[in-house]
Amino acid sequence: MDTICTDRERLEQFLVDHLKASRYRHSLGVEKMAAELAEIYGEDVSKARFAGRYHDIAKCFSEDVMNGYVRKFGLPDMYIGNNALAHSKVGAEILRSEFGVKDEEILNAVRSHTTGRAGMSMLEEIVYVADAIEDNRNYQGLRELQDQARTDLDGACLFIMDFTINRLYSMGRIPDEDTILAREFIVNRINNRS
Q1: pTM of the model
Q2: pLDDT, position 1
Q3: What b/e sequence results for 89-102 when a residue is b if at least 16 CB atoms lie within 10 Å of its CB, and e otherwise?
Q4: Summary mean pLDDT of the chain
Q5: CATH number of this structure's domain 8-139
């Protein structure tokens, strides 16, 4: 019996039915990278695999469908019309309410994979980083960032957060408060380690 999910077969079909092929490949890549990082950092590999595979379960919903889920789950209005931020929160709620996932660590990893959050667990950080560095990504410096993540997860996480924050500012957008607080949390963890 699957201890994480009440019906893995139905969950997998939901994932296949609701993701574009490229997003499904990405999810498999995040699953693989999250498992690798979990092995390196002594985290639960099965939880990392699960959170990595299903982190984007709501990513390809239309705005109307996403808004319906935001309302259904009673999420804040700031997520209405904001699929980029809403998909992680909605995804965690779908896993919890429709597929019986009760493990809060997994749900938090899915919930925070887009923005991070202050107090993120190691599993949350692993999924956050794996999402940015899985093998299907294609950007300059990817291999170096993957290597850094294997030896310095906090440093890789901080790099990704800084890149995200700077990119948003350059586009004239304000980063989500969770990302700002997550960055402060990671910086403090790095400083406390030094």
Answers
A1: 0.95
A2: 44
A3: bbbbbbbbeebebe
A4: 95
A5: 1.10.3210.10
pLDDT one-digit tens code per residue, 64-73: 999 999 999 9
Q: Which of 79, 169, 92, 163 is nearest to 127 (CA)?
A: 92
Domain ranges of the chain: 8-139
The answer, yes or no, to whether residue 121 has pLDDT greater than 60, is yes
3-state DSSP of the chain: CCCCCCCHHHHHHHHHHHCCHHHHHHHHHHHHHHHHHHHHHCCCHHHHHHHHHHCCCCCCCCHHHHHHHHHHCCCCHHHCCCHHHHHHHHHHHHHHHHHCCCCHHHHHHHHCCCCCCCCCCHHHHHHHHHHHHCCCCCCCCHHHHHHHHHHCHHHHHHHHHHHHHHHHHHCCCCCCHHHHHHHHHHHHHHHHHC
